[in-house]
Amino acid sequence: MDSVVENTIAQDFRDRRSLSRESCGLVGHSEILRNVTRLLGKVAATDTTVLILGESGTGKEVVAQCLHQHSTRARGPFVALNCGAIPPELMESELFGHEKGSFTGALLTRKGRFELAEGGTLFLDEVAEMTASMQVKLLRVLQEHQYERVGGSKPREANVRIIAATHRNLEERIREGLFREDLYYRLNVFPVELPPLRQRGDDVFLLLEHFLVERAKDGFAPFTLSAAARQLFLEHPWPGNVRELQNLVERLSILRAGEEVQLDDLPLHMRRGREVLETESDALRAVWSGVPEEDVSLSMAVSAAPTLPDGPFDLKEYLEEIERHLILQALEICDHVVARAAERLGLRRTTLVEKLRKYAIQPGRG
């Protein structure tokens, strides 16, 4: 091989190895995030299967793209598939493609995600949502590195790197009989766990600045936070993680562009969380002061209950607005995957779909 070519390849490999938080789009300086970056730096340039774990909204796809960009497959395609957003009956065709006429509606031959990702990386997000039968088929591809299109008989080579992700506890899913243990070990070669935003301390403000810069590119003047709002940003548990923060910045940059955000400008669910904490603190102080525990519990229940509005009001409309608000929160936290939002709300998927129609809510996915 020509020495110039060898040097170019070697330099290109070193460039991919020099992985940093900035080159990955990971914003923050917390030690827990530094540890994640160190892990990514060790595995990125290999062809090893990676399993990314973490709550919804922690940036699993961002990390998957980072691994691809710093791998030897960087010049190949990066193909993503959200397994929770595809109906079970279509999953096999989505992954492996199908031949013309292989089933009703298959008017043309279609490539699947494995074929589209040839020579690159296939990112299987929410892999725990796969049905048992699809888990078997995925396992076979991982073992044999071959697959067939639906309705086809010609084996095709699967020259792809697999990166999988889930917000589920897969070991619990195995115990419940919902996930295959052998597939788990095939995917869990190199696990990377992403921390929730509530564990990252002041990273929340670095992310805030990052999103404000992004909004400024669209012509929105940055806002500032009052002392009380800043404190609430630190105290809030951020159930939707980085995605929840990003959505909040988008909302506030419209409402308070170039202004100072006050506590009352923040969403009700954020402020209510603080009120509950304050009520619990008051209750603990009461216990320490000798107030009977039953009276404290009653006090907390009354304080947390909704207040009856002054004058007559439409109770049905009031309750529907609360329901609509909770559905929107569940969708946001669950990345707009209807099946997961229904589970979060304790509803059947079909029931939630009916409510989405009722309130004219467009879920976006799933």
Shape: globular
Going across the biggest sheet, name each strand in turn: 2-3-6-1-7
Q: What profile does the largest beta sheet have? A: 5 strands, parallel
- Radius of gyration, in Å, reads 24 Å
| Share of residues in helices | 40-55%
Proportion of residues in β-strands: 5-15%
The poorly predicted ranges are 1-17, 276-304
Pattern of helices and strands: HHHEHEHHEHEEEHHEHEHHEHHHHH
Question: Number of helical runs?
Answer: 17
Q: Describe the oligomeric state of these chains in a short phrase.
A: single chain
Amino-to-carboxy terminus distance: 50 Å
Q: Based on DSSP secondary structure assignment, what is the total number of beta strands? A: 9
What structural category characterises the helix and strand content?
alpha/beta
Just name the CATH architecture of the largest domain: 3-Layer(aba) Sandwich
Structure description:
Helix 10 packs across helix 12 and helix 13 (268-288) runs antiparallel to helix 14 (293-304). The chain is α/β, with parallel strands linked by helices. The strands form three sheets. A five-stranded parallel β-sheet has the order 2-3-6-1-7. A two-stranded antiparallel sheet has the order 4-5. Strands 8-9 form a two-stranded parallel ribbon. It has three domains: 3-195, Rossmann fold (3-Layer(aba) Sandwich), CATH 3.40.50.300; 198-266, Helicase, Ruva Protein, domain 3; 316-366. The chain contains 17 helices and nine strands. The protein is globular, with a radius of gyration of 24 Å. A hairpin with an 8-residue loop joins strand 4 (146-147) and strand 5 (156-157). It has helices at residues 3-17, 21-24, 31-43, 60-69, 88-96, 113-116, 132-144, 170-175, 181-187, 203-216, 227-235, 241-255, 268-288, 293-304, 315-333, 338-345, 349-358; strands spanning 50-53, 78-82, 121-125, 146-147, 156-157, 161-166, 190-193, 224-225, 260-261.
